Amino acid sequence: MSTAPSIPQITLTRPDDWHLHVRDGEALRTVVPHTAAQFGRAIIMPNLKPPVTTAAQAVAYRERIQAAVPPGVSFEPLMTLYLTDNLPADEIARAKAAGVVAVKLYPAGATTNSDAGVTDIRKTYKTLEALQREGLLLLVHGEVTSPDIDLFDREAVFIEQQLQPLRRDFPELKIVMEHITTKEAAQYVAEAGPFTAATITAHHLLFNRNAIFTGGIRPHYYCLPVLKRETHRLALVAAATSGSDRFFLGTDSAPHPAHLKEHASGCAGCYTAHAAIEMYAEAFDAAGALDKLEGFASFFGADFYGLPRNSGQITLRRESWVSPDSFAFGETELKPLRGGEALPWKLVA
Ligand code: DOR
Ligand code: ZN
Questions:
Q1: 254 CB under 6 A from ligand 1?
Q2: Which terminal CB of the chain, N or C, has fewer other CB atoms within 10 Å?
Q3: Which residue among 16, 252, 291, 325 is the active-site one?
Q4: Which of 30-44, 92-106, 113-127, 172-186 has the weakest average pLDDT?
């Protein structure tokens, strides 16, 4: 078997992160600069406490995020609203006028700060009609919440029970299935037509569920949807590197104070924003598909959202560097995924 010569450096059109949690308050000062150093734009998740449910709240939140962007750095937060059983349909036109680009569906109880989420999707149909009409996107956390369904099966069951009927009822609503984790989701999205896409995280491309249990329980690898078996990871790598414009980059970087992850009931969420594009480069390189990274990271998301592609560039070099193992996070500490470990790709410009 011949080995391809290793590429020493790659230059990409500036990428975007189509799924990101930045929290609020002091936390913004730590995490926003990490993302802004790599990405031109990011879709900001609305699962604050309380959630972002009005256009006015989204605008105020955007201003707080912009205030945390370092001087001289160009970064645009793209805002979303949190779908509840009673988000009024007429809020959608106001949201669009305010520059909000999407609405996020969390099934109630599915994950961090999802208590206000949707209990029955039919209750939201008037609002979804407004979304489809106004051309905003629906972003989906695709997991059922029933305790009867095994945690590892919740995504596949969601597709059958919730997503397929929703897709039929709103044929022209643009839907992004966020952070897909299974071969069932990759296959569904590949076949679902031009109005359905998916984001894939770096950690789901790099790790399978063994990572949560290697040498002891490792809470920093715990996120939702949880890491799956190797067959699923391989299906995600195949989808991400396929060149299909239906799959694009979304880190789901989700910071939590370290003491709340290293806890008897630790929070779900992996923090990857400190080295996100480097980790994607590592995953694409391992698959021999660095030539497919730019479409996935820099083009397909913008195209699906109907936004212009970025014009700047970034450069990554094959150079080992050790990520910090901790960052100040307000009054607490933030431990990034793979902190203190050597990473093979480095953002150099
Ligand atoms: O692991 C996760 N963390 N999954 C989510 O869906 C939410 C996120 C968070 O906000 O921490
Ligand atoms: Zn998320």
A1: yes
A2: N
A3: 252
A4: 113-127
